[in-house]
Design brief:
2 domains; alpha+beta; Arc Repressor Mutant, subunit A
């Protein structure tokens, strides 16, 4: 099995807000898709792209918003994409911004790539998901709208003449918005937006004051937290989210990983784990990490690792560490205090 495709939550928060503004129970739908609620408040949180696609597709279907991907993408400014967006927005020219997007995307998405193809007086801003199973009409059109928003930072005196999409549709574009008048071709190897080559040398419009005053911080740390590209570590990210969404069963995990239960269990075995042992270990590590934060209540830690009853969590923690969560926290605090004495 390949690594689980992961992406930063910032990529989808405009979709969540768009659905909520339409009266949809977006937060509960988010969790039903197996996505962790905490990611709604943490743009840099890694989420499984396949689960994210399901959330968007289900939201479009249940709310009858046939052009959800396009309309929510139109509302997604580049600077809304977390550290990735702030990094790209710091470029001086469009050529610099597109080059930055091509290099920074590895820290943003484990399956996505960007590049520019030039031919004559035309250029194409290209995007591709290496795992074709995560492509869908809504995700494709969301990507196109955000790509156009980036290109138009160099001027809005043009419209795309041709748009190519990886997915095969069907596309219902009642309000064509940023793709108006463009020739749309589906089922292509890459998603791309054609634009005048001359735009590449233009300077970008000034960033909003809130962005200009807040350049990307912690860039090295952000790069270190890039989505893992090996199977086991990427699956652990997926599993952590399922635990937080209270959907940590082997069938949900296999579905979110794009696998059968048998194939998943076989792959875990090749990595030296059984399903139940890995689930237990991820819960243990998550609990220990959260307990290091003195502001985290023990009841919240218990809920985050899948225990609605604190007593059950305490018993599990004693099995893991030989002590209660409160005792563990006290010992850690005492050890840190003596180390700084």
């Amino acid at each position: 099995m390949r690594a689980v495709p992961l992406i930063r939550a910032a990529s989808s928060l405009t979709v969540v807000r768009f659905l909520a503004s339409a009266g949809a129970p977006a937060a509960s739908a988010w969790e039903r898709a197996g996505l962790p609620r905490r990611a709604l408040d943490e743009p840099e949180h890694l989420v499984p792209l396949r689960s994210l696609c399901r959330f968007v597709e289900d939201g479009a279907r249940t709310q009858g918003i046939e052009d959800l991907g396009l309309r929510s993408g139109e509302q997604t400014a580049v600077e809304m994409l977390g550290t990735f967006g702030a990094t790209v927005r710091g470029a001086r020219t469009l050529a610099d911004a597109l080059h930055t997007s091509a290099t920074a995307v590895a820290s943003y998405s484990s399956t996505e790539s960007f590049w520019v193809a030039v031919r004559g007086d035309r250029a194409r801003f290209c995007q591709r998901f290496s795992d074709a199973s995560v492509t869908s009409p809504h995700i494709d059109l969301f990507s196109v709208a955000v790509m156009i928003n980036l290109l138009r930072l160099a001027g809005d005196d043009w419209t795309p003449s041709r748009i190519e999409l990886q997915s095969r549709g069907p596309y219902t574009l009642r309000e064509r918005g940023v793709v108006a008048d463009a020739e749309i071709v589906a089922g292509r190897p890459v998603t791309s937006v054609e634009f005048p080559r001359a735009l590449l040398h233009r300077r970008l419009a000034p960033a909003p004051a809130t962005v200009a005053a807040r350049p990307p911080t912690g860039l090295t740390e952000w790069q270190r937290s890039a989505p893992p590209r090996d199977f086991l570590r990427s699956f652990e990210v997926l599993l952590t989210g399922l635990i937080q969404a209270d959907r940590a069963d082997v069938h949900s995990a296999a579905d979110a990983a794009g696998s059968t239960v048998r194939s998943l269990q076989r792959r875990l075995g090749e990595c030296g784990w059984t399903w139940s042992d890995l689930l237990d270990d991820v819960r243990r590590r998550t609990a220990l990490r959260m307990l290091d934060d003195p502001s985290a209540r023990i009841i919240d830690v218990a809920l985050a690792v899948g225990y609605s009853d604190p007593a059950h969590f305490t018993r599990a923690f004693r099995r893991w560490c030989g002590t209660s969560p409160a005792e563990h926290r006290s010992r850690r605090a005492a050890g840190q205090a003596s180390a700084h004495a």
